[in-house]
Diacylglycerol kinase (Vigna radiata var. radiata), 487 residues
Amino acid sequence: MASNQAMASSSFISNFIIPDHILVPGSLVGNKGHEPECPVLVFINSKSGGQLGGDLLQTYRNLLNPKQVFDLGEQAPDEVLRTVYANLESLNQQGDQFAKTIMKKLKLIVAGGDGTAGWLLGVVCDLKLSHPPPIATVPLGTGNNLPFAFGWGKKNPTTDQGSVESFLNQVMKAKEIKIDNWHILMRMRAPKVGSCDPIPPLELPHSLHAFHRVSEADELNMEGCHTFRGGFWNYFSMGMDAQVSYAFHSERKKNPEKFKNQLVNQTTYAKLGCSQGWFLTPLLHRADRNIAQLTKVKFMKRHGEWQDLHIPPSIRSIVCLNLPSFSGGLNPWGTPNRRKQSDRDLTPPFVDDGLLEIVGFRNAWHGLVLYAPKGHGTRLAQAHRIRFEFRKGAADHTFMRIDGEPWKQPLPADDDTVVVEISHLGQVSMLSTGDCKSKSMYDPLSPRQEVEEDDSDEDASPSEEFRKFGAADTFKIPYDIDPSRLS
């Protein structure tokens, strides 16, 4: 019986294994052997999830060809994909049928936090591959917003053979869904005093690898200016939520040994939310740090004229959202009812409609309304392009983050302006399961409106799913903290 199970497992795994000659440059054509039905390249951040990352890496290497499983701490994904695709092109020209099939059917698996997943998405987009492969994400971080948005779950997985085989089975059956890609540009004149360079938590995170100062040869370079560029797929946020995230990431960089457990990470995140004043903003958060005081915001609904965005004076955090998964799997936009769609020209949050949803929050208590079945933040606008303009006098810095990775952003000390502009830049392909939260505007089953909508900001009891997975770290207060005693 055990022998039959082993044979069945081996037969199943053979659907994913890529032969050596595809992975080793300069190999001879090889058209013999089993042709994989679902060839995969696996990228794992062995430092994610504490010990889980290393264990998962070992399990995949034991099951598959070790040459198709890569540790992102040792090999960058751009180098791997350039090498593999160059070899595929060469073998294909020589008539290798395996190469032709693998190029057509290839899928990528990335295991790590949202920053790691964003890193791989950025590389696939930047390389402009002849056949860009779709990507499946293994949740192996603290937030896991990207995996959750596409049905891959939120809880860090177990790493045994059975769990990995179950995941591979889902990858084989997964459907492709296109999502919008967003470009972010930041520009300022070289300041007379100080620096306006982004300040990440101790070192540059992976998903910000492309958020760097452009070279003189870059078309976006402007003489006399510092210009930075990058991209994101889930969200850009600014304000108090990013400040809490910055404190968490900085602490984790300093003491990584204390952050080896997902539950501990989430509890620490919540405690930092308290200590940073996210729950008691009127008392602990200066009014001049409110978004309306910090920046002037313009948006473009579709191609056309820029419009001023009205931001209520109490808003302390603003989120530009592409996917319906923020702060541990919550959807700040919700689905506007028919009246809201008509009166304000709003739509449901489709991930492939070329629009970002702009949502505001007053504080963490305001965010708790997302626990309600139809709760949402303050809907500000939907936009094809967004521009933030920071001027002297508001504050000396603010906090920003993209796809879970934060930084501290110095603001002008003289009379110049710092401009951050976000614009649409094509699409990438993701793999999704039947539990996918993301909706396509081309899917006839995607909801167009809600029958009834809850517009109150009252707290609601979190669903069992969110309690189980510890969702909404940004908006969650730990049980052992008494807010009244915070100083």
User: Anything to note?
Assistant: The longest helix spans residues 77-93.
